[in-house]
UniProtKB/TrEMBL annotation:
The name this protein goes by in its record: Fe2OG dioxygenase domain-containing protein
Record keywords, A-Z: Iron, Metal-binding, Oxidoreductase
Similarity field: Belongs to the iron/ascorbate-dependent oxidoreductase family.
Organism: Panicum virgatum (Blackwell switchgrass)
Bias-annotated ranges (Basic and acidic residues): 51-69
GO molecular function, one term: oxidoreductase activity
Length: 395
């Protein structure tokens, strides 16, 4: 499938406060705002020709629709806390479990990465109080007057702190129903000055998540039949690059109110950990169907990224996922992504391609890959094309 043409560039200048005006929570106001700010450009396929209020449900049969229609989360199959298929990894077993239990947990982890590119981790040791403090300080940031955030509102994809609406609207040509904060957290933490406590909270939270993901990286390496340090070494994870992201999806009340918070995409990094404020909206694609992911209490969602797909030579897949919005409650999520060292050249480890045949990806410097993905319109897993080995079909 070919990638659609890049949409024409537009700049939308309405403010955060304008979008959250008194009309935003009325049915008519909600519909107007969604139509104005979620409608794609003529060249965009993110929600092309898809009405925001459906007389028929495009997902009643569970089939994947790559045009990302703005549909309520209830239109997707549900999986997670009710035993609907998402595998759960007990982090404490990975660290402290007896040999047989740990071996079983690593096999389960490998199966999750191979079948889903997505799983939950429990007993991870990150205090609930720290998670709540992180969520609350990010909520305070979103509520600040725009003049206190203005220096970050025009930041580009590779700037260390970025606040905005939509993925990167100058590239997308469309505003998604999302406010976000993105900040580089490691090897150096970059953070807005306000709210004042954000820096300390973000530093502690990022350090906890980084340690957790480095343990998962070693376990993933073992699940591939490799030494635990092989994958971390191949990507320079000891001097890893880490991003902290907070997403705020404003409420939208009224019958049928729904929209796309973030379109279908895979993450550019290695692993992503996510928790949310109790409002569902994360959907994961598996087997041609969109599944609404419901977490276990206290669990983190773990999402495999593109660099894991590359380094494993396609054995493990970066998960295709999206965020849908609707209803009267705002949804918030906090995301921490661990990635290779910016200057690491990520390629399949040779042990997984012993004879040099069947090589699915070529080596790409992570900095270049990230800049490519962040500077282009989100379109599924299209960013991986720059790393895929091109094969001569005729041959």
């Amino acid at each position: 499938m070919s990638k659609p043409p890049t949409p024409h560039r537009v700049r939308l200048s309405f403010s955060f406060s304008e979008r959250r005006g008194a009309t935003a929570n009325t049915p008519a106001g909600c519909a107007t705002l969604l139509l104005n700010h979620l409608r794609p450009s003529p060249h965009s396929t993110a929600m092309a020709e898809t009405p925001l209020h459906h007389s028929t449900d495009p997902f009643t049969d569970g089939e994947h629709n790559e045009h990302d229609p703005a549909v309520p989360a209830s239109d997707a199959a549900t999986c997670g806390a009710d035993g609907g298929g998402i595998l759960v990894v007990d982090f404490d077993v990975l660290v402290n479990g007896a040999a047989d239990r740990r071996a079983r947990a690593i096999r389960d982890l490998g199966r999750a990465c191979e079948d889903w590119g997505f799983f939950m981790v429990v007993n991870h040791g990150v205090p609930e109080e720290l998670k709540e403090a992180t969520m609350e300080t990010c909520r305070e940031l979103f509520s600040l007057p725009e003049e206190e955030k203005v220096e970050y509102l025009e930041a580009g994809p590779m700037d260390p702190v970025r606040i905005g609406t939509g993925f990167f609207s100058v590239v997308d040509g469309v505003r998604y129903w999302r406010d976000y904060l993105k900040m580089f957290a490691h090897p150096e933490l970059h953070c807005p000055a306000n709210p004042p406590k954000l820096r300390d909270v973000a530093a502690e939270y990022s350090a906890k998540k980084r340690a957790l993901m480095l343990v998962l990286a070693r376990a993933i390496s073992e699940s591939l039949g490799l030494d635990g340090g092989r994958i971390p070494e191949a990507m320079g994870l000891e001097s890893c690059f880490q991003i902290l992201v907070a997403n705020h999806y404003p409420p939208c009340s009224g019958p049928g109110g729904a929209g796309m918070g973030l379109p279908a995409h895979s993450d550019h990094g290695f692993l992503t950990l996510l928790f949310q404020n109790g409002v569902d909206g994360l959907q994961v694609e598996r087997g041609g169907r969109w599944r609404l992911a419901k977490p276990l209490p206290g669990a983190f969602f773990v999402i495999a990224g593109d660099q894991l797909e590359i380094v494993s030579n396609g054995r493990y897949k970066g998960a295709l996922h999206r965020a849908v919005v609707g209803g009267e409650r705002a949804r918030m999520s906090v995301v921490s992504m661990i990635s290779p060292c910016l200057d690491a050249v990520v390629a399949p480890v040779l042990e997984l391609v012993p004879d040099g045949r069947g090589l699915e990806f070529r080596g790409v410097r992570y900095r270049d890959y990230m800049e490519h993905q962040q500077s282009n319109k989100l379109y599924g897993k299209a960013a991986l094309d720059i790393a895929r080995v091109k094969r001569d079909i005729a041959a």
